[in-house]
Design brief:
Adenine-n6-DNA-methyltransferase TaqI, Chain A, domain 2, four-stranded antiparallel beta sheet, alpha+beta, single chain
């Protein structure tokens, strides 16, 4: 620790101002209005009347979200307002710069220590009394200003670089989707149009009983949550559901089976396809349609996976769906969708190979961009660690 630095308890250099009341004519800040890990405000400055008691804050405070502190929702407002009682307004004393305190909350070491004070499993909350007892490194004001200035410039640059890399990563996927749509728009000799009902049968999944849902097991219970919006199977990790009850015949899927999501759990999910990655372990659940080719139909599952990812087919499925908040479709409605495809299965396989090569290249580039994002995150963590250990 550098000369002139002191170690104080956090409660010696700041206080929590919990001025509670029914506040009016002020902007409101809820936890959903603070972006995790960035200290960015993503809400509105429009006046919102309080429906219940809230805390009032000013430009002197740092707002700290104590619910699920691992999300690290912290913000230094440049306006007066009122906030959720899950957010504590913390006011530093004259010896402590507000921005220095904000950056201290953003540091990984601080987040981990605060997580250790939590109570409650489903809704963990930081124990702010314990947090106020934490040791806090306090350099002279001039040193605080120097550190804040360095962090302002460095983290601003990191944020801009991340936004640029993230944009490039999204562009890679957009280019792949654009090329895929181009193939289906250009078509060629030997392409025809048919309704899906003339090409395949679409089977509803089974309504498996929730009493037999488990967090682990031999049989994975598929839901629309197992589908990526851009198509493909998604492993839900710790959120994955399994099934331990009796399984009716015909609802255990095989590798390469083609399913389509018939409920829009998330925006863009309706009509999303997935190819089953392995035999004998995935269950055909309700709200998912299993597509099986009719005899003599020129149909390759891998090709029609890409057909379902075209913007025209997704739009047709969405437009014919029912429901306002959550849209649903059915085998009958999907069967009415008209698709274009080459009659030759050899040409279908050639297109699949072409798109597979493009997909591999886009994934390779996306992985490179993700490495850059991870490196920028690590740089940010390193700078914050150095700042509060006197090494910056």
């Amino acid at each position: 620790m550098n000369s002139g630095w002191q170690i104080k308890k956090l409660g010696e250099v700041c206080v929590t101002d919990k001025t509670q009341g029914i506040h009016r004519n002020l902007p409101y800040v809820g936890l959903e209005n603070i972006e995790a890990h960035t200290a960015e405000f993503i809400g509105s400055l429009e006046v919102q009347a309080a429906q219940s008691a809230t805390f009032r804050f000013s430009q002197e405070h740092v707002l700290y979200g104590r619910l699920r502190p691992y999300l690290n929702k912290v913000f230094a407002p440049d306006f007066e307002g009122h906030c959720s009682t899950e957010i504590f307004p913390i006011r530093p004393n004259p010896r402590l710069l507000r921005e220095f305190l904000l950056y201290w909350f953003l540091a990984d070491e601080t987040v981990n220590r605060i997580n250790g004070t939590c109570t409650g499993a489903r809704m963990p909350r930081a124990n702010m009394n314990d947090v106020m007892e934490f040791e806090f490194p306090l350099p002279p004001l001039a040193e605080q200003r120097r550190i804040v200035s360095i962090l302002d410039n460095a983290l601003s640059g990191i944020s801009a670089a991340k936004a640029n890399v993230e944009s490039n990563r999204k562009n890679v996927r957009s280019l792949f989707e654009s090329r895929a749509n181009e193939i289906f728009l250009q078509r060629g000799d030997g392409w025809i149009e048919r309704t899906l009902a003339t090409l395949c049968d679409i089977k509803h999944g089974f309504a498996f009983k929730s009493e037999f849902f488990t967090s682990s097991g031999d049989y994975t219970l598929l839901t629309p949550g197992n589908f990526y919006e851009a198509g493909g199977y998604r492993d839900r990790d710790e959120k994955q559901k399994y099934y331990c009850g009796e399984i009716p015949k015909g609802y255990v899927l095989s590798e390469g089976d083609l399913l389509v999501a018939m409920t829009e759990q998330a925006a863009g999910l309706l009509g999303s396809p997935a190819l089953i990655p392995a035999s004998g372990k995935f269950l055909h659940n309700q709200r998912l349609g299993l597509l099986t080719k009719k005899p003599d139909a020129p149909w390759i599952n891998e090709f029609f996976f890409h057909v379902f990812n075209t913007s025209a087919v997704r739009k047709a499925i969405h437009d014919s769906a029912s429901g306002v908040k959550v849209r649903h479709t059915s085998p009958t409605k999907i069967g009415e969708v008209i698709v274009a495809f080459p009659k030759s299965t050899e040409e279908q396989r050639a297109i699949v190979a072409q798109l597979s090569d493009l997909d591999i290249e886009s994934q390779r580039l996306a992985a490179i961009y993700q490495q850059k994002i991870d490196a920028l995150d690590e740089l940010k963590k390193s700078l914050l660690h150095q700042a509060f250990s006197g090494q910056l």
